[in-house]
Amino acid sequence: FLSGQLEAFFAKTRVELEHRKEQTDALLRKYLGSAASWEKPEAGLFFWLKFTGTDTRAMCRALGSNPDFTVRILPGSVYIKGDSRHLLFCYANVDMMQVERAIKIISQSL
After folding, report:
1. How far is residue 26 CA from its own chain's centroid?
2. Do residues 99 and 23 lie in contact, with contact meaning Cβ atoms separated by under 8 Å?
3. Which of 98, 107, 105, 48 is nearest to 78 (CA)?
């Protein structure tokens, strides 16, 4: 890339990721509501979701075998020893239809 092209690429990518973040936040509110809590990330490619009364390790195992679930998720225990309440949800590498389908599947699994 020439420097101008690279800067344009990064600017376009930032706009796209900001749009995806806003859409994902709206979908989380629509389908999960009070079943989970989160703060909208200022930067990054993930939402860090907190569930009460749900074992996210078991959730990840179950969702991992679902061929319709195409969004990358990780249980909080990958980052915090013994954590079974958090879920890392990546919205950046799939289209928004897949994000919405994944959030619906999560809400149905609760």
Report:
1. 12
2. yes
3. 48
Lowest mean pLDDT among 19-23, 47-51, 62-66: 62-66
In the three-class reduction of DSSP (H, G, I as helix; E, B as strand; rest coil), residue 89 is classed as strand
Give the number of C-alpha atoms closer than 13 A to the C-alpha of residue 4, restricted to the C-beta side.
0
Return the DSSP state at 78.
Answer: G
For 64, other C-beta atoms within 10 Å of its C-beta total 9
Token representation of residue 91: 């919205």
Is pLDDT at 1 greater than 60 in this prediction? no
Q: Which residue has the tokens 């930032």?
A: 14
Token match 């969004």: residue? Answer: 71
pTM of the model: 0.88
Helices (H), 32-83: 56-64
Alpha helices in 1-54 (DSSP H): 3-31
pLDDT at residue 2 greater than cutoff 80:
no
